[in-house]
Amino acid sequence: TEVTEKLEEVVMIWIKQIRQVLVESEQMRREADDIGPSAELEHWKTRMSSFNSLLDEIKSSRVKKIISILQAARSKTLKQWKELDGNITIAANEAKDNVRYLYTLERFFGPLAKASPVTMMEHVPSLMNTVCMIYMTSPYYNTSERMTSLLLIITNQMINTCRTYLCEG
User: Fold this and answer.
1) Are 44 and 99 in contact (CB under 8 A)?
2) Could you say which residues form the signal peptide (predicted)?
3) Were both Cys, which of 88, 120, 151, 163 would link to 115 (CB 3.0–4.6 Å)?
4) Rounded-to-integer distance, Cα 93 and Cα 91, Å
């Protein structure tokens, strides 16, 4: 029982740390008005990397041994652990999926950032079709909150490109 108590303390520390990571990942991001859609892709790539590292750690043999010992001891901390393990898996899958869908927009990043307004407008119909495809098929990116955020940064990029074009002309 003494070993079980020590292991439960360790798992409770992990639970606290994982909850903190999950809470921080769900907080609203404040972005500057001049960021473009490539920043959204970078955000999700960073998040994917973080959650994949966390998943790797959770799946490590050291952690598995501790969880096995607590299962044998019928520890009550395992209920919380299993819930968090599931939440981390969901967050990792969401990040991976969002990166995959946002990569479909990558071919527009250059034209949005560096083209003249006329050239940029040639890309808008296919850009909007791609955004629509993301909305229709992505299991995680199909919320009004995510779409509003994405459209806002795309629009900001277009405005900044036009502003730069006007100031140079």
Assistant:
1) yes
2) none
3) 120
4) 5
